[in-house]
Amino acid sequence: MPKVRLRIRITNPFRVNFKFPDLTPYKTKAIDLLKQWFLPHRRDAMFALGKATILLAALWEYVWLWHTHYYVKRYPELPLSLAWAMLTVIAGITIAQAGISVGLKKRGARRRELSAESKAQLTVLLASYIAGEKDGREVTEAANNARPQDFEECVTFALIGTRGYALERIKQLPGVAKLRETWTAKSRKGGILQRRHSVERLSLLRDPATIMALEVALEDANAGVVAAAVRGLLRLPEYTERDKLLASLPTRPYLVRVLTAGEASEETRYVPPEVVEPAYQTREVCSSLANYGSPGRDLLHLMAALGRAGDAPAEALGELLAAGARGGR
Amino acid sequence: MPGELDIYVHRVYFFFESGIIFYVFVINIIYLFLVTLGAFALRKHHAPFSPADRDAIRRSPLTPSISLIVPSYNEEVSVKESVGCMLRLDYPNYEVIVVNDGSKDRTLQCLIEEFNLYKSARSVAGPLETKDIRRVYESTEPVRLVVIDKTNGGKADSINAGINAARCDLVMVVDSDSLIERDGLFEMVKPFLEDPERTIAVGGTVRAVNDCVVRSGMVRQIKTSSSILANFQSVEYLRAFFGGRVGFSLFNCMLIISGAFGLFRRDRAIEVGGFDHSSIGEDMELVVRMHHFYRDRKQPYRIAYVAAPVCWTEVPQDWKILHRQRKRWQRGTVDSLWRHREMLLNPRYGGVGMFAFPYFVLFEMFGPLVESLGYALTVLGVTFHIISYGVAILFFTVSIAFGILLSTSAVMLDEMTPCRFPNWRHTFTLFAAAVLENFGFRQVLTLWRAQGLWDGIRGKKTSWGVMVRRGFSPKPTA
Fold it and tell me: Which residue of A has its CA nearest to B18?
């Protein structure tokens, strides 16, 4: 049997030369538009939009459930039933909001009270420890009994005003070593505020052991975190890549440049203070400065920051803190 | 025939009533969406600079300088205190320029006496046209205070004179009856530091200071007011700022920066022609013009809002003054939108043209009219037995309930800010105000705004009117 080949010719019945349009420019435009919407400054907006949509959709679902399961039986007309359902959900949310708001406020006030008490106690202990009146065990015990955030804040406050011998004493506390690890871990994860605070606290330690964590923070997406890391590294005399870091500053975001301009200038290059036991006279002068009220305290802070007169200014400040916490000067 | 007419009337009535119900539903959903967006976005707004950052900004030579421009007209009661407060702000490089716009009271004398001003030869000529400058005064204070005495020309004219005289990179417009928080400038300048190329304007939060404890030009204790009217406005401000502005600024669509607290790049403000003398709502008009100008030129720009810095202002506690203020605001909105009507639904203007502008036209401009019409139709429907009492009350209740939900959500959002009310009793008062404002106050505002819209359409001229200042000092006790 001969083979029959079936040939089908598709012809254009309208006899029009149809040419499929070139969609490439539109495609590129659409891709560009999509890319634009996911630029870093728009990404947050898109995420917020997504979350808001999901939340409102969930609320609508709740309204719909009230409508289908309860109100439709009483009010067969759809608008009436829906209106009642909406009213129920709105009333629920409003009452919940008022309750949560007032409750949170009351709890916050109580927490603040307790926290202030515990921080005052910890500050006194810390100051006594720096002055050599108490040993580290008592501070550690008190820290274990307090909220971890309170201890963190007390240590941070102490780190801001202390240098030299006093700073070394704080670093010797077992709790502070643990805090360094916590801050290192927190500097790599969590929200912007958490990362920034952790990096700032790490840099206050002025500890060569923090160099690696600070270097990692240099790659953070947030300029505030990067600035804190740059400041921390520039404060460390042990940091060997200082010149390289300074050279990279002009290429970094403007916020980083503004926040590190002080440290980056040659005039303010950090000179580490020598760890020396203060002479009796220096200590006496610092104590009398502490009695001069606010100007004296400012001068002591300045001396401590510049590393002048060893650790005497920091010790005088520590004593002042302790006296303040006891209700003295 | 009467039967057919009846059916016809019923059909027309239901057509309008359904349209209004749909409108109210859509507007409330959009408001709710904006408040929800605000809730998710506000967290980012409250990542303030740490003390170490602030110290770095103080020392940095790269920190942008700011000229605070304070237009002032018959403000002798509060000008000393507010200028004193501005001179005590915590910021490294700024100056204060008070523009006395031909005050008829002792505003200028008060300033000269209080701040030991001397006549200065400082040149205040600039690219923006203003009325005649009579004299310029300067102080010897560490923070430079410049007072420009000029012929009366209105608020926009005064601000332009201030922009001409300014020597800093950024200009901030502040009302002379307002108090800025001591560290407010750090947070206001943040968007300029984060995105210096694109950011051209930033708006902050404005809150009611009535009955708060103010000492030495600083708000020491945040309290709700003893006046229910002031509390209603407190809630309204929270809703407007934490709901609307946060949401719109996320998409660079914010059409308004409050005239009481706005920071602009000086060169960009001059480039677009400064504040418009002939406009009633000059603050909104400038922002809309900026959008128009830069979108026309396809230049990247950003107009941001930051919730953290707060400017405390006295809100009217008198119905008459409030009436005049709201009518003026509505006229300002109508005027600004009309001037830039080319942007409406024009894809060339992106999100501003396709979303923010139609939103403002549909809901902010015509909203009061539709809402008033809705109330009138419901009353008519009930009177002529077209709809039952039950249905009317139910829809009225749902509309009120949406209003309450929006207001209480805004009060809840306030809990996420550092400026929140410290005492739970104040929060409770605010919640009560958020509920009560929907029974009467909101409806009165709607009517006033409808009046403002009508005045705006007719092109009626409105004067600034007189705001009776109570001052910030505590009332003397008996």
Answer: A79
Interface mutation target, options B40, B235, B301, B438, chain A, most CBs of A under 10 Å: B40
* CA dihedral sign of residues B126, B130, B136, B142: negative
Spatial separation of the C-alpha atoms in residues A232 and A328, rounded to whole Å? 35
pLDDT in tens, B255-311: 999 988 999 999 999 999 999 988 888 999 999 999 999 999 999 999 999 988 899
Q: What is the pTM of this model?
A: 0.82
For chain B, which domains are there? 2-42+355-458 (no CATH), 47-351 (3.90.550.10)
- Residue listed under structure tokens 């009351």: A106
- Residues B85/B261/B434/B393 CA torsion (nearest 10 deg): 150
List, in sequence order, the alpha helices (H) in chain A: 24-37, 40-66, 72-74, 78-130, 136-145, 148-161, 164-172, 174-186, 192-204, 211-217, 223-235, 242-248, 254-264, 280-290, 293-306, 312-325
Nearest residue of chain B to residue A108 (CA atoms) = B422
Domain edges within chain A: 61-98, 177-272, 280-315
Task: Report pLDDT digits (tens) over A47-104.
Answer: 888 999 999 999 999 999 999 999 999 988 888 888 899 999 999 999 998 888 888 8
> For residues B294 and B304, what is the distance between their CA atoms, to the nearest angstrom?
15
Hey, are the CB atoms on A48 and B250 less than 8 Å from each other?
yes
> What is the C-alpha to C-alpha distance for residues A71 and B247, in angstroms, rounded to an integer?
34
Q: What are phi and psi of A37, to 5 degrees?
A: -70, -20
B388 touches chain A (CB under 8 A): no
Query: In chain B, whose CA is at the least distance from the CA of A260?
Result: B56
Stretch 249-268 of chain B: residues touching chain A, C-beta under 8 Å: 250-251
Where do we find the tokens 């690219």? B127
Helix or strand (DSSP H, E) at B303: strand B302-313
